[in-house]
Amino acid sequence: MITSERMAMVDRNAAALGVPRKQLMESSGNAVARAVREHADPGDRVLLVCGRGNNGGDAMVAARFLADYDAHAVLLGRPETIATDIARENWDALDASELPADTVADSRAFALDDYAPDLVVDAMLGTGVTGALREPEATVARQLNAADVPVVSVDVPSGVDADTGDSEGVAVDADRVVTFHDDKPGLADLDAAVTVADIGVPEAAETFVGPGDLRALDRASDSHKGDNGEVLVVGGGPYTGAPALAGRAALRAGADLVRVACPDPVAREIQGYGPDLIVRPFPGEHLAPPHVERLLDLAAGHDTVVFGPGLGSDGATLDAVADFLAAYDGRAVVDADALQVVPEVDTAADLICTPHQGELRKMGGETASDWRDRADRVREFAAGLGHTLLVKGAYDVVSDGDAVRVGRTGNPGMTVGGTGDVLAGVTGALAAQIDSPLQAAALAAYANGRAGDAAAESFGDGLAASDLPDRIPQALRDEGE
Ligand SMILES: NC(=O)C1=CN([C@@H]2O[C@H](COP(=O)(O)OP(=O)(O)OC[C@H]3O[C@@H](n4cnc5c(N)ncnc54)[C@H](O)[C@@H]3O)[C@@H](O)[C@H]2O)[C@H](O)CC1
Ligand SMILES: [K+]
């Protein structure tokens, strides 16, 4: 099953892998023509009703594959109103090839009987539908539903929401649906036979995080209306730079506000770095159980907590981490020494753990040299743990125990200290903006690696972790779109 939102991401990822949407449309149209062949005989009259989006484009392609039928394409609207370049190119190809095709600009000009079809291909609207069908689509849908003619719908019956199966007004009552790449949740309860057509989307477009995944952030900024979240970084003790790096990275990944809770001496140093980070010091040299109550209060006012950067592995510190996690029920990123506490603790929190392979082993997980084997093991371990894992490596493997995503951006220069702190901060900021922890972690791995790749262009293997945060905003933009 795939939602329309995820399909749009995968589609964009496929384009980035060198399989552009027009090529997928060619496969989609071919699959539609194959379905027509199963329901009608050569010579039969086939009416292809095309909308102005890519759903219509699929049927325009199908028309080219049906030369041995009496096939006729009807565009609902004027050719100038076709919404996408690839649909327009396919319409122009029909026109230039002098294949039977005409346009219907308003509902009064359409009468199904004029075509006397043996079969209708419904390609008015696919996953791009919003709200109730407008005219002329609504009238055409009513005529199709009233007539005794078999209907093959392209991708989804026009008017039906592919994610929910709902329709706000009239929708096409299809006999058969040819849907693409993967089944859609909204098709399950319809009275239609559903076939899933492989349209050649490489598996890598789903597995490897790509520019399409950046859409998760566009959507997040629509729904949160400018509220990009507040992040609390809990870190510092033996190390000072780590919490500051994580905090700065969280800001650059779009968090509205970042506070760093750290021991007094660390706070004084962080304040010397500049005005961007708000510091909430606690007494002593390192985190300890007496600090936990105040940290919990502080955490309650934040969308996510990034736990671990530079905390060290003092016994009292690890006890404090365990106490915190046992009482916390929000969302947190756990990194570095704090990770070893996670398998023992019973927590209601929603955690994203970001171990490197050594830390994963310390948590009781297994690694493997081949990334595919590693992906299986990470998935199993995440399922047992009940949290999301982002296991760092040349290929970063992310799993919530169910799905697996792999980030393959980044370069060997990033083995320098501190890049993990940057990743933890970016993960915290994205987890404050994106609902799915898997998606937030996957995108964080991708963006961190891309920022590292941009830094390597200037500094090669001499890159430093502090080169990364300022390169995160660009790494979170899709320049190819
Ligand atoms: N990877 C894939 O899955 C591929 C899918 N393909 C096909 O593309 C469509 C989705 O195309 P898109 O252009 O995004 O949307 P639509 O064609 O469904 O519709 C957009 C079009 O419709 C107008 N519109 C929206 N709501 C309404 C309404 N209620 N009434 C009337 N008109 C409406 C809107 O203004 C736009 O102009 C997918 O389903 C597949 O069939 C491609 O083949 C590529 C690969
Ligand atoms: K359709």
Automatic annotation (TrEMBL):
This is Bifunctional NAD(P)H-hydrate repair enzyme. Pfam families: Carb_kinase, YjeF_N. It catalyses: (6R)-NADHX = (6S)-NADHX; (6R)-NADPHX = (6S)-NADPHX; (6S)-NADPHX + ADP = AMP + phosphate + NADPH + H(+); (6S)-NADHX + ADP = AMP + phosphate + NADH + H(+). InterPro entries: CARKD, Nnr, Ribokinase-like, YjeF_N_dom, YjeF_N_dom_sf. The keyword Cell cycle does not apply. Bifunctional enzyme that catalyzes the epimerization of the S- and R-forms of NAD(P)HX and the dehydration of the S-form of NAD(P)HX at the expense of ADP, which is converted to AMP. This allows the repair of both epimers of NAD(P)HX, a damaged form of NAD(P)H that is a result of enzymatic or heat-dependent hydration. Residues 460-481 are annotated as: Disordered. AMP binds at residue 420. K(+) binds at residues 55, 122, 158. One of its GO terms (biological process) is nicotinamide nucleotide metabolic process. Its cofactor is Mg(2+); K(+). (6S)-NADPHX binds at residues 54-58, 126-132, 155, 242, 310, 356, 421. HAMAP family: NADHX_dehydratase, NADHX_epimerase. GO terms for molecular function: ADP-dependent NAD(P)H-hydrate dehydratase activity; ATP binding; metal ion binding; NAD(P)HX epimerase activity. Residues 7-207 form the YjeF N-terminal domain. Belongs to the NnrE/AIBP family. Belongs to the NnrD/CARKD family. It comes from the Archaea. Keywords: ATP-binding, Isomerase, Lyase, Metal-binding, Multifunctional enzyme, NAD, NADP, Nucleotide-binding, Potassium. Binds 1 potassium ion per subunit. Its EC number is 4.2.1.136, 5.1.99.6.
